Amino acid sequence: MALADAKKEAAALNKQLKEWAEAYYTKDSPVVEDNVYDQKYNRLLELEKAYPSLVTPDSITQQVGGDVNSDLPKVEHPVPMLSMGDVFSKDELKEFDQRIQKLVGHPVAYNVELKIDGLSLSLEYQDGKLFRASTRGNGQVGEDVTANVRYIQDVPQTLPENLTTEVRGECYMGKEAFAKLNAERDEQGEATFANPRNAAAGSLRQLDPKVTKKRQLSTFIYTWINPPQAVTGQHQAIGEMAKLGFHTNENGRRLEDLEAVFAYIDEFTEKRDQLPYGIDGIVLKVDDLALQEELGATVKVPRWEIAYKFPPEEAETLVRDIEWTV
Ligand code: NAD
Q1: Is residue 21 part of a domain?
Q2: Distance between CA atoms of 124 and 165, rounded to whole angstroms?
C-alpha cells in the first residue's frame, strides 16, 4: 500500500473511531459493539506501525479516553490515569511476556486479575478521610464525582489509619442491579442502557448525586498510587488495601509462569457467565512494583501490564458481521 493510501485510510479510521469514542465515553451510549471498535482500532495501529509518520499526537492511538466536556467540575490527575494495551490471543501474550523478559533480563511473576467491565475511578484520602473522587476523563483531567461516590456503599469514607493517599479501581454495576435498572427504565418508557459498563458510567457521571444514590454501584479497587515502602508487589498491595476496608476482587492470583496464566484464562472464560458482575478479559500485571516503575509507560499505556480480551460472544459477532457486510 502506498503512503498516500495509508494516510487516507488512517484519517478515515481516526474520524470514525473518534465519533464512536465520543458516543461511548462522553455520552455513555455506544453506537457499535466493542469488538467492532477494536477491529477498526487495530487496523489503525497496523497502518501506524507500517507507516510511523502517521503517528501524530492527535491520532486516537495516542489519546486516553474521550473529551472531558461534561458540566461536572474538573480534576487534574498528577499521576495520569492511563489506558491499557490489549491482545486477543495467547500467542500475543507470549510475545508480551518475551518483551518483558527482554527488557528486565529475567522471567517475572504476574499478578493476574479479572478485567472488570466498568469505568476507572480515583479515590483520594486526606488524613484518612475521603476528600475527592474522580473519573479518568482524558487521563490528565477527569471529572469530580465526589458527591456521587459518597453514595457508593462499598467505598470507605474513613480509613482505619490516618493515611493521605490515592487508590484507583473500577466502578461497576453488578448484573442484577443492571437488569433491575433497565427493567425499571423500560417500564417508564426511558431508554435502556446498552450494557453494565455504560449503565455504571451514566450513573456515576451525574450532576445530581441523588440519581447515583438510586443506582446500585459497586467498586473493585486494584491500584495503590503511593503505597507504604513495605508494600513491594501488586498482589500484596491488593491484600493491604482490602485490610484498609476497600472492596477488592478475590480472584486475583500471583502466578509464576505463562502456563499457569493460560490455565487461569481458561478457568475464567468458563466461569465468566456465573460471576455477578461483567468482565471483558484478564489483566496481567508485572507483580514487582519496582519493576513496574522501571518499565514505565508510553503516552497511552503502561508497559508492565496487558489485557487479554475475551473473544466476542455470539450476539456480538453477529452485530459485527452485519456491520462488515453493509
Ligand atoms: P480498556 O477499557 O480496554 O482498558 C483499560 C481499563 O481497564 C482501565 O482504565 C481500567 O478502568 C479497566 N480495568 C478493569 N479491570 C482492571 C484491572 N483489574 N486492572 C486494571 N485496569 C482494569 O481501555 P480504554 O482505553 O478504557 O477503552 C478502550 C476500550 O473501550 C476498547 O478496547 C473498546 O473495547 C472500548 N470502546 C468501545 C467503544 C464503542 O463504541 N463500543 C468506543 C470506545 C472504546
Answers
A1: no
A2: 6
Q: Is residue 298 included in any domain, yes or no?
A: yes
What's the CA dihedral at 221, 223, 227, 232 to 10 degrees?
A: 120
Question: How many domains does the chain contain in total?
Answer: 1
**Comparing C-alpha atoms, which of 315, 314, 307 is closest to residue 38?**
307
CATH number for the domain that contains residue 307: 3.30.470.30
Q: 109 and 255 in contact (C-beta within 8 Å)? A: yes
Task: Please work out whether the CB of residue 133 comes within 6 Å of at least one atom of ligand 1.
Answer: no
Checking phi first, is residue 281 left (phi over 0); if not, alpha (psi -120 to 50) or beta? left
- The letter for the amino acid at 144 is D
What per-residue string of b and e applies to 195-214 under the rule 16 or more CB within 10 Å gives b?
bbbbbbbbbbbbeeeeebbe
Q: Where are the alpha helices (DSSP H) in 127-248?
A: 146-149, 175-187, 196-204, 209-214, 234-243
Residue having the nearest C-alpha atom to atom 16 of ligand 1: 115
Q: Which of 115, 175, 214, 300 is the catalytic position? A: 115
Give the whole-angstrom CA distance, residue 33 versus residue 324. Answer: 12
Expressed in angstroms and rounded, the spacing between residue 115 Cα and the centre of ligand 1 is 9
For the question of residue 115 being annotated catalytic, the response is yes
In a domain, 38, yes or no: no
| Local confidence pLDDT in tens for the 326 residues of the chain | 899 999 999 999 999 999 999 999 988 889 999 889 999 999 999 999 999 999 999 999 999 998 888 899 999 999 999 999 999 999 999 999 999 999 999 999 999 999 999 999 999 999 999 999 999 999 999 999 999 999 999 999 999 999 999 999 999 999 999 999 999 999 999 999 999 999 999 999 999 999 999 999 999 999 999 999 999 999 999 999 999 999 999 999 999 999 999 999 999 999 999 999 999 999 999 999 999 999 999 999 999 999 999 987 655 544 444 343 32
- Contact of 283 with 112, CB cutoff 8 Å: yes
26 C-alpha vs ligand 1 centroid, how far in Å? 14
Q: Does the pTM exceed 0.80?
A: yes
